[in-house]
Amino acid sequence: MATQEQDLVVAKESVILKNPGDWLKWLFSRKDTASRNNLWPYVDPDLSRDQLLVLEREEPKEIDLRRLRDPVPSEPLEIYDLTPTELNKYNAWAQTYHHKRLEWRQKDKALKEFNSEIARTIDVKHIDLIIDCKDAYERLSTLKKHLCPSVSERNHQLRAQYRALQTRPRSANLDFWLDEWVTTTRLLAQAKMSDVDGNRAQEDFILSIRGLDVSWATSQLGKLVKQEQEGESFKPIADLIAQFKSYYRRTRPIASGLGTFAMLKTRISATNVSM
Question: What contacts 104, CB < 8 A, 6 or more positions away?
Answer without folding.
Answer: 55, 58, 59, 60
